[in-house]
Fold these 4 entries.
Entry 1:
Amino acid sequence: MSEGLLGGLLLALMFGLLAAGLEVALALGAVGVLGLLYLKGWTVGLGVVGSIAWSSATSFSFVAVPLFVFMSGILLHSGIGRGLYTAVARWVAFLPGGLAIASVFSCAIFAAVSGSSVATTATIGMIAVPEMERRGYSRPLICGAMAAGGTLGILIPPSIPMIVYGVMTETSIGHLYMAGVVPGLVLAVLFAGFIVAYALLRPEAMPRAPEDQATLLEKLRGLGEVGPVALLIVVVLGSMYLGVVTPTEAAALGAAVSLALALLARRLTWSALGRAFHETVRTTSMIMLIIVFASVFSHVFALLGAPRALFGVVQGLHLPAWAFFAAVFAFLLLVAYALEELSVMIIILPILFPLITGLGFDPVWFGIVMVVWLEIGFITPPVGLNLFVIQGMMRRATSRDITLGTTPFVALLVVLVVLLFFFPDLALWLPRRMAPR
Amino acid sequence: MIGRASKAASLLGGLATLAIMGLIAFDVLMRYFLDRPQLFVDELASFLQVLVIFGGLAETFRSGGHVRVDLVTARLSGAARARLRAATLALGLALLLVVAWTTAESALTAYRYGRVSAVMLYPIWIPMLLIPAGLALMALAMLASLVRQVRAVAGPAGGRDEVPPEPDSR
């Protein structure tokens, strides 16, 4: 059998198994194992599976994944970080749509200690959503601002998807983190700008109230509430930026300090710890099983020479780089509406990454683009991770509310990708200034 | 029985996370303040991570935590979906058994040849054995699910659909 035919058959089999509803990880594994058995035989082929499983499972950089999930769980279930929203609201409530802006900004701040968009939405939303509902903000707007604000959790470092991207493509996770900072801030401003504009055009969607005017004393007192989160930001990001620790070590320090803060505030119950454990193990097993079997799968495709062959095909098209990028991104946007994005990223990176970098795009820059794409995926109905969180918090939100509310924010995320394309330094300026580690 | 074992394994994974956190934080503090890096930490943390990943597999499966695509299956009839799920469960089970067998063999080989880790010379068959153990436990959980699924396929027409995650899982 020719290599091209075998590759095609395996791909077709994988899509068949995925469509049949086999677990994504197992579909990748089944195709990878079959490919190895055919190419290398029983003894050698299966031996490769064992060594790939061992090496991906013991990668030290991946250790940051459970640590960040654990830290988010502790913060969420102990309620540390909840005071953040109230404090931020006092400062920005005077703006049109102030409570929605406060949601976005407190998500942006919390994002600097959280590596997951779900945890960010859940932590901030727990206070922000009831507050906005009580004030009579329109439901689509609450859904949109909260879901979109939460996605800042993966763009502003730390970020679990950046760890996955970094390890899979051998890109520096520290550089990816720093590259996410400026785009994250730009995005928060874009979101806030949209909210202000919307509030000015449709004041009834975001009613204002006299209590929006906090006194300076109240504003300053609110800053005390931000203390624990500020400390965590210094521990997690400061130590990394200065080059004192690696991303994995920063994750361990962050988790340890979060646990200590929760203990000191007497907010750590056994049930909170149990839930944090459960979430940690569940998320880590799910992601890592996909990574283990995706590595087996991409090993087979590398044996078949598929990445090089594909690159040849793309080069043969003589497309300008921007056109190729636009085509890839348009395809990804369609996928974002249909599938679970993180697993899609793990599946396609081994194929897409060599193509993109081969055409001269920067690996760190492309990592940021992939994360922005994930953000889009997390808030596009019907299957966006953040939307499930919002639905859990707002029982009355209909799918129409959600679709209406998130669409403008999806458009703003696409605007960010366009900005990143024309001004790659938005992402690449900060990592160049970082202390090496 | 399988439920209890999965929960216990998952709890071990949680405790392993706590241990990793403590070890790495200890290493950073010792290195930064006392200039005494703890060389054993990186390897031990990586080995504990194997426990986090593979310890959690079975309970994650039981609670429906492994991502699946339902774009196509959601459009099928309940009976067709039930039969298809029985088939995919059987296939997944077979794959897990093959991979558990081959990873167990790798661990056995590591034990026979006395393979040790690069820095601290820890015997690596112990963490290696966690991989087939976790996969086998997930295979058992999948087998239990397959049994329920086959019963649903053979049972009364009204109940023919994909079986939900185990009720006692979170």
Entry 2:
Amino acid sequence: MQLIFERSRAGRSCSILPACDVEKTALPETMKRASAPRLPMVSEIDLSRHYTELEKHVHGVNDGFYPLGSCTMKYNPQIDEEIAALPGFTGVHPLQPMDTVQGSLEVLVTAKTMLCEITGMDDMTFQPAAGAHGELTGMLMIKAYHQSKGNTERNKMIVPDAAHGTNPASAAMAGFTVINVASNEKGCVDLDQLRKAVGPDTAGLMLTNPNTVGIFDENILEITKIIHEAGGLNYYDGANLNAIMGIVRPGDMGFDVVHLNLHKSFATPHGGGGPGSGPVGCKAFLAPFLPLNNPAFSADGTYCLSQPEQTIGSVKAFYGNFLVVVKAFTYLLTLGAEGVPEVARNAVLNANYLRVLLSKKYDIAFNEICMHEFVMSLSRMHRENGVSAMDIAKAILDNGMHPPTMYFPMIVEEALMVEPTETESKETLDKVAEIYLGIYDQAITNPQSLHDAPLTTPVRRLDEVGAARNPRVRYQFES
Amino acid sequence: MSYIPSSQQERQEMLQTVGVAAMDNLFAVVPSALQIKQLNLPSAKSELEVSRMMRKIAGKNRVFSSIFRGAGAYHHYIPAIVKSITAKESFLTAYTPYQAEISQGILQSIFEYQTMICELTGMDVSNASIYDGASAAAEAMTMCHERKRDRVLISATVLPMVIQTVQTYCNGNDMTVELIPEKSGVTDIEALETMLNDKTACVYLQQPNYFGMLEAAEKVGEAAHRAGAKFVMGINPIAAAVLKTPRDCGADIAVGEGQPLGMPLSFGGPYLGFMATNTAMTRRLPGRIVGETVDIEGKRAFVLTLQAREQHIRREKASSNVCSNQALCAMTASVYCSAMGPSGLQEVANQCHAKAHYAARQISAIPGFALRNQGEFFHEFLTETPCRAETVLAKLAEKDILGGYPVSNGILWCVTEMNSKAQIDALTTALKEVSLACN
Amino acid sequence: MNIPQNLSYTKSHEWVLFLNETTARVGITDTAQQLLGDLVYINLPEVGDSVVSGDTFSDVESVKAVSDIYSPVTGEISAVNEELKDAPQKMNTAPYDSWLIEVKNITGQEKLLTAEQYAKICAEEEAH
């Protein structure tokens, strides 16, 4: 495929603006750019064809099964896109007077009310732009809380070794020392290890439940109690909410602060890596620490932006990825009280169904009733046939499908984590099982064919070592 | 409606295969005392009902036809092709391109975006985006953090929300933040010289600054470097088409808010943070970076590279936790820059400059609306106001004009290519009326 | 297994070459580079930094992982091998020629292994 710069031709352009209708002005010479930026010079047809070609080399949820564990790649409804494109939502400046943005504030406050109901929280900010951003926000709130009580020695954050990498990274960014606690043989938090890890310097625990191997930790109330009794707070990573929303609330499980990934359970599209949205909900006692400009009701019944008294400040400008919240809100209204738990039930049913079908041949890491995802281990296959999780994943690509998450969580060797979501049909799951089981047989009878995979994709296995040793991170124009 | 395809019959069949009698059995592990009896949410709605409800809510917002407000969010023309390309379903719904073999479309588009950011800033390497300009500034401070250098000096002429975000992040990374005073609407360089020492990690400057003024960026950079500190510039990407690049001003890192490159105002988001630096500091950049490579058949291809910097590998040792970024907004910026091209983008910048200066001449001639600061400005300028700013703005609102933003007892006006001469003249006429009414 | 006789070793797969009683060079062994795979980058400390025996002083990156390197001695860094920043692959192709740091004023060290002792440990690990 050509780069847009390779399609560029001198003198080509699109005609976008009218001529300037006021007198031209000039910048002082000393402030001017030496030469124009070398942006593409293309006509609109070039641009159209360029991106049409790129689109053929992209795999969206609309292209096929997307079982990425912990990513919740469910279908992204079209009505959400249409509503988010309404001029009433897109044409509003963030610094307009409050009485001219009551619609936007209604979206944020109503969405907050609904999400607080689902999570068992009392207040919420939409400012964080992604899950990790929400984690940082929550970590800073916990830090501010302990500081407000004079407990500056509480500087340790406990994180399970199975946690997503953003968890310890966020805790470290907030200035905490991370205490890793081992998982037990079921992939759940080891209670004895946890009791040993807490102390007067414990600020809190970061946890997701169900955990990263798709298991609901039945000791959850004991876990959160241990932390509370030690004087710490409990942070809930909402990445796996799709399994339990409408079934049980993080707030009832002993969590004090949570983040949600609207681009996961709440069906907003992933966009190739973003924009997402990572709202942070909290119990009332933490609400004073929420970021600035918190959407709320004012005394006269209109909507406003309030300033929490002991705010941590801001984690970005303005109020969050507003249009993403619009999409999630539209989705929530569609689901309603009946739809929310139905999503969780069917996400869990689909995952268990696929797990049972695949368990005919594959080793399932914890082969019991799972939540919305399950982990397969290719460790035995690797030892016996030399075929790794990577090889299986590449073979899946040759079948026109996106592979599951590879090599996560780190507590399972040669892991492939599968999350079908509730928006897949039974016949898709049957077809997927057929293909995966076929690849399993192939791995035994012809391992070399998997080492060579993928064979049918637009490009084959890439030289990542070369890319990292000698990074070429921009197009170089011939001088 | 929950977008669940399976029928009751199919669900029964699946339950049977799993070996449980009913859906509820799947949640037996959840303590029954915790299980929600009834969610207090409105009932499910059909698409038609939801559409009506949301359109009604959108109708409660007021969209002004004439916008003269900036202060961090800018009203620019978005070409139709930008919207149609970024609405393509595969681009919209794809995941992060970790499986490079089937994601060349996304990876190449990020590579193209990175190249365009390098061109705008004059830098060698760009990341694949971060949340917005403010968080980009905050992450840039961490990039400059050395063991013996933990002081951030940030100009008081920077957008207040950027300063706040930097302060918030620095509460976590143990850097101290000090404000460099403002003088006559620009950074007080003499004051800066007295503040620099061998513990200064970096100096952050915004160009054009919050008040629209053009700063003596090179002088600030030289002062920073003499003290052994890094120089970070936060820039406006439209202005970057015509202004001296951060590279040429001596910046080590260039960041900024990419919203003007094709993203609507949308009440504050989603926007786009860009970050670019020189080759030496490449590995300090947070977030994803796409690199060029070849596949086993020698074909050119693109791949996420330098991943060992990131959280999924370094965990608590990562310098940043960023995972999801603003990928589709980065694509929006690339399509916008390609649709405008170098001459088009410079035309936008020149029209912003010309119209702002036209407006400034007209407005400052009205009694009570003198310019606050003398000196070069780009497309924003601060004026005095003859009576309370709120009164002025309310009068303008009656004429469907969103006036400038109230800032330090004045009004910060912004003019872009979207403001026709007729709109500017209408604004001037309205302000003349206000001026008379105030006296 | 490539384990030169004239060097000392640690359980964490570093080698040590004493230039004199209080100065030594440290690198990673052939076994280490095999386990780590293709190395793409090394984060080296600065000259003048102090190192403590048993603590990490550096990390090396492969495409999908980061690994800590531990110092076998306590002292002050007198030199770092800048060459490795641009050519990390040398640690793969010539691990015993690619010293990472040189340490002077050595005041302590962990219990180092001889070539035979190290070879035994490697064999045990492989069998595992």
Entry 3:
Amino acid sequence: MAGAVPPGAEVRVIGPPQELERVPLVANQRSLAWVSDRVAGIVEGRAPLWWWVAFVPSVVALLLLGAMLVYQISTGVGVWGNNHPVMWGWDIINFVWWIGIGHAGTLISAILFLLRQRWRTAVNRAAEAMTIFAVMCAGIYPALHVGRIWFDWWLFPVHNSQSLWPQFRSPLMWDVFAVSTYFTVSVLFWYMGLIPDLAVFRDRAKTKLRKFFYGLFALGWTGSNRHWSNYEKAYLILAGLSTPLVLSVHSIVSLDFAVSQLPGWHTTIFPPYFVAGAIFSGFGMVLTLLIPLRKWCHLEDIITQRHIDVMCKVTLATGSIVGYAYGMEFFIAWYSGSPYERFAFINRAMGPYAWGYWTMIFCNVVAPQLFWSRRIRSNLLVVWILSIVVNVGMWFERFVIIVISLHRDFLAANWGHYLPTWVDVCTYLGTFGLFFTCFLLFMRFLPMIAIAEVKGVTPQADPHHPLGGAKSGGHPA
Amino acid sequence: MSKTVPPPCPEPATGPLYWRSLEHLAETPEFRAWAEREFPAGASELRDPHSRRDFMKLMSASFLLAGAGLTGCRRPVETIQPFAKQPEGYTHGLPQHYATAMPRRGGAVPLVVTTHEGRPIKIEGNAEHPLNAALARDPADRHGGTDLPAQASLLNLYDPDRARRYTFKGLNSTREQALDALAEAARKFADRQGKGLCFLLERSGSPSRARLQQLLTEKLPQARWFTYEPVDFDPPRRGASLAFGRAVRPLYHLERARRVLALDCDFLGVEEEAYRLIRGFARGRAPKTPGDELNRLYVAESLLTVTGSNADHRLRLAASQVFPLAAWLGAEVLEAGGAPAPGTPAAAAVAALREAASGLTPEVRRWGSVCAQDLWASRGQVAVLAGHRQPLAVHWLAQVLNFQLGRAGGAVGFIEASEPASGTMAALVQALHGSEVDTLVVLGGNPVYNAPADLEWAKAQRQATTIFRLGAYEDETAPHCDWHLPMAHYLESWGDARTADGSLVPVQPLIEPLFGGLTELEVLARVGGLEAVKPHDIVRGTFQGLAPEGVFEENWKKYLHAGYLPGSAAKAVEVELQWGTASQALAGMGAKPPPSATALEVVFAPDNRVDDGRYTNNGWLQELPDPITKIVWDNVVYLSEKTARELGVAVVDENRMNLRVPVVRLESAGRTIEGPAWIQPGLADYVVGVTLGYGRPAAAVGRVGGGTGYNAYPLRTTQALGFASGATLQLTGKRYPLSCTQNHWVMQGRPIVREANLETYRQNPQFAQAMNLPEPPYGLDEQHRPKPIYPNPLDQLKPDATHWWGMTVDLGACVGCSACVIACQSENNIPIVGKDQVRRNREMHWLRIDRYFAGPTADPQVVNQPVMCQHCEAAPCESVCPVNATVHDDEGLNLMAYNRCVGTRYCSNNCPFKVRRFNFFDYHRRPLDKLYQSPLTTFTDGEWEVKRWLKNRDRGSRPQEEWDLLRLAKNPQVTVRMRGVMEKCTFCLQRIEAAKIAQKIQAGASADVEVRDGAIQTACEQACPAEAIVFGNLKDPNSRVAKAARQDRGYSLLEFLAVKPRVTYLARVRNPNPAMPDYHQQPLTTAEYLEHGGTLIPHGTGAAPGAGSAATNGGH
């Protein structure tokens, strides 16, 4: 650190040669104060019109979800399209779909943190929030799709009138633990990361109410070195705890299928393939959410083109893994020599639901290949559309796995069909209501960007960077 | 003793004709007594601690006195004798068994009915009856099969839509007034010697009715008697009587037959006596060793029936062409024994037969000739059956053939059979129009609905001044009558009948008439002004005349106790062909042109489920998948694929969940009907099959059967009761939704049902196990089953268990009649779910019969496979249940703990057999048309559903009157499942437990707690007329089930999954004739399997020959 720069002196920045310069994570050499102002501004200003335009339908959809669940609980699971032999339909498809979406957040905040991927800071907060809300949406389904909802608590290892423990051999049991652990740790991790930023909001609060609540949740954060030191340690520990969970939760969800002996489900490839698919869909959803948000909230300098670019590459990589898994499933089906296994896969590609299979292949394998092109990656509209295609594709992947495998299994006499009902559709729409209501409230009341972390990756935060060192300046000439 | 009910609203005796409400009902004292009790025989008492003791006292006292008093209880007042078990005392909570019989047209099915606290809840065949006892293989073999209608008739007893009131000109009346009117009529006709009095009866084999008819004829000589049956099974008797010149009818002993020929005769399906014909036939289809003889079934038929689906050789033939074929066959057989001398009547007959067969195509002739040779070669062991729809000539020919081919006295005997003289429907219509009828008494039947259309019966009937009608329902006929009297169900009536062999059987009431109905006997006696009018006295009176020597009271008790009168079977008679009647039989039977696309042939068939319409309001039967089409809740217009194509009818077969088929208009002789078209494999070309019994309005048939299907009767005329020629068919442009329980019809080359021809079986007895998938290289376990990679100690047989329960299903014997499905439904309180739910594949049957077609659509082969829970030792359902709701017991049962189930449905997804059923709604409690309405927004009997539920959580959401009746039909030993729980076959756990308890009591201090073989019969096993299902203890190597499972035909379904099912299927063996033109080297399913790369050559790592494949070799 060189000597102090006299106030008003011109600062000349001598950066590395242009060809070696990395694209900075915060564009336009924004100052640290700007970051705080910009992120806090989203919460402190009046809600923009677009927010209301999004919020009102979301709340309506949330009410629809409530109505559908009341109807379903009071009347019976039969109001859905589930039938014999397709005992699981949209309920489990949507469960797995939402859980998959809930993967990106913790992956970004934990694994990328451990891997020192500094670009994660711009998107991790929103992605973690997305994770939590997606897991909430997902959790509705296994809890409410059962025949007797009022006995759901029997799935937990608590003493009940029958003096029975749950059956630990059942993957549904593992699911209960995996999902609830994942949710708990994700919430903790998210909240941990929020504390310094909540303190910022507390300090900037203009009303007593805001001051009280932000102050309450900021847990007395002062920004002292001791706080920071503890915070960093805790963050690291939680990141370490979360990392296996990212892998375990979808592996275990995949075991719901892999443990059974149904052709099309009974596959050892499922755990890695499900995790890859989950990351794929998670990043898809992050892109879907953040591309419009960065524009509407004027965050282009924080969530930069480079961030989008990196996320596209992750999507491309995981999409290709998923595509490989699809191919491998077919190979194994052929290689197994089991006519039942072979039929299950031929039926996927050529049976009555072949349109579902080919939609999945197009969305998950073919479409993401466009991300090889830098031009495509830099065209935000195309990226956004492709991110939605990825989400559609991942929905169809679950449809293919669940419905197509179930509808034609061993004994041809059992073969059936599946059609969702309007209640299925409205319940699914309703979960979007829950998701977006939560997300929109989140962005209005909590820092959507991890302010402290973003500041940490700006050039100004780097003591060795010409701009680094002091708030007001950097290295002397 | 009773709950408080408000006094019924006063209602004038002739109140307006409203819906039959509780108030109407409450007029009868019987009903009032019944309604005051929630449970007629004591459940309400049991709740009350004070009256419980009193009740028990009263019960024990009353059972000693056997019904002397006990008002309010619905136990019949007359003495009835409990059957076999516990006749001495009565233990509350233990079921009692009574012998009775279900009267049919002219015959009867001997039954034993189980009652709980005075409620009949299950119907079974009477194993002791000579017809059944004669077929027992050993003294321990106690089997009495039944058939569909018998099993399902229980539900009719509790049908809330039965006729429940006495009406006069549509207005409410009372029983007393009705009886007065009958007495009035009796007085009037006594003076006029019966002039102007006509009776329209259904056919009946009741000696009491015959006796009453005799008595009345003596008293009222001018009274006239008429009989009408829309589907009449009398023709075989008429054919035999004509052929042999005396009143005889054939009695088939198919168990002795080597060759069976069915001429358009569905003797395994809808014809009379199917329950015993199936048993006899199946005896010859279930070889124990490769050396055993098999019978061979030839079928020539127009529709694809249950019988046709079991044929070794099946010829599709329009119904009108069956006579020419029969004539050809007849001529071939008659000449096979040497051509009759020229100039004799026999020679003339042969010439006439050849002439009649002249129009046949060479292929059909060849079929007939080879068949005739085969029959001739097996003479003495041949049975020829002709279907009820065929003209008398075919029946005459069938009996001629039986005589010619059976001189050695084998498979067909002839017994004396006379029918009381009575006129036809047409004669009655003539009399009506001639104003010769003053009073018409219609006993049973439903002529307004099912009389031939050309008679215009409704109009003709009104020509009578007064019409008395005794009817089970206020049906189509009811509004056209003056007096309508409710008819008692046979389980509420005293009566008698004769079974197929002529044995006398009693019809005993097990419950007092729920709605105060009358029986046919009582009405007849009252109209005749006889002294004895109580049916009990009439039946006793009849018995007096027939009873053997000895103390009458003893005989009577024995008769009721056993359910038959020993030695009362009709005498077999020696018959001689009367060639002189040949010309009479063959008169007018010239060659008829075969049908064509412009002149279609309509074939009328009784429906497999609802018969001629008498069971239309029976929910069990409505929801039973038709054995051939697997359609429920409807009948369809059958067309062959070729006919449909030529007529432009397309049934889209993809996505059958939303199956909507085109509606066609069928026109014949100026009359039209409309119905949904169905392309049926195996149907004769240019034949349109229609089934009777459907298309009835809800107002006439009731809440269950109303509005189902289409009505085919308007097309049926006196001249063409069986089939009509010259019909045309057009599309209407409309579409109609159908519900079908089996969407996929072929096995995809999978070895699901395994079958082989007899030669293959003899060369390669282990063919069924050879069709297993190659075993993984982990060796075989001690039961010669592939070892899994990761053996689970929990999945092993428990060596300490006393029993290893298991079952075998002989696919060779099973004919697919579906009686087991209804038996299971009745025993296990399985709800019906309605057409809409079946459309969504949510039917609840624990036992289903999978039906597969193989081969070309035109001439398919059919196989049936009953599939129930396989009770896998390594059950995949158990390991995935998170709440331990489905678990294994030591004896090998896969149990379902309903109150532990939360309904994740994973078990069903993981069940390879998909035998688990989920209660998507509260099917038991809620009306089927309100399943989708939330209780939060529904009202029942004017009260908010949620409020009702809070008041009494055990109450249903059905109207109270319906709910009360439905509850009576439930088996108290089986939990009634609520919504949200999974259910499945339990191997009739309640029966197993009852037998174990009985054995433990018997064993006392000794440790002999092993249940005797045969002591437990599951409901399906008991009902199965083919004896295809055997249940028992696999641990006992000498048990029937262990022996059966050890047979080399045994195999497990999907054995490669190593789930180790406890159900062993015995592969089917066909016995085709290599000389026949339609001979196939392999059964078509096997051919399909071989085409898909399968093999019949044994393989694997050590599947030692002789080792049973499945849970078989118990006791090693």
Entry 4:
Amino acid sequence: MKKVKLALIIIYLVLFVFISALTIFFVVKTVMKGMDMYFQQNQSPSLELPLKETEVDNLIDLLKKLKLL
Amino acid sequence: MNYSTALKNIRTKVIIFSLGFILLITGYFFLLNFYSKKILKQIQEINSLKEKLSQFQAALQKESQLKKLKFLIEQKANKELPAILFDLQQKLDIDFEKAKNLISERLQKENWKIIRTSFNQEEKKLNFVFQIPVEDFDKFYNFMLDSNLIWKIIDLKVDKNNDFWQIELNLQTR
């Protein structure tokens, strides 16, 4: 009877350890993958003006010089 | 119950228990995999929303920058942008007849010696070959600039002789 009890305890322990390991494995895997996905760097679109203020000045001056303005 | 029957019963129970154990673990594995994928899918959705939001913000910023640029151009030119574009179009929009008349009149007015002229009305192309005194070159340049004919030139050949410039002017009009 004692042997049966011991076998049952061992079986429950193995089951518990196996299920815990499986759970930890999936939790870690999900967290790692999720972090990689969430914090991945997206290429931000360029926000530079097509012309700078000095370039606009030069352009207007040039147009005036060429009598187009 | 004899010994072999009891052993058989125990074996059957062990097999059933093992199968149950395997099924339980497999089920749990699939359950965890399912939820893991579900969570990752939701993170992906959040990411795509974040990306859309940043694109929208960038578009808004770009729009405000373009408005700023438009304001800057209008301020420097003292005109509204449509007016600037209209003026430019008017100045650059020289038709065949107008260009022909402008150059012919100027050649006559300045007494510049015409060597050859040829016109292709279908292709709207004009060709003038004429000679101008060396000191008239500025006058010619200013005329081309003031009349905006300078923007219609597709080919220009200038040869300098002793006291005059021989100019071959090829224009493409509308």
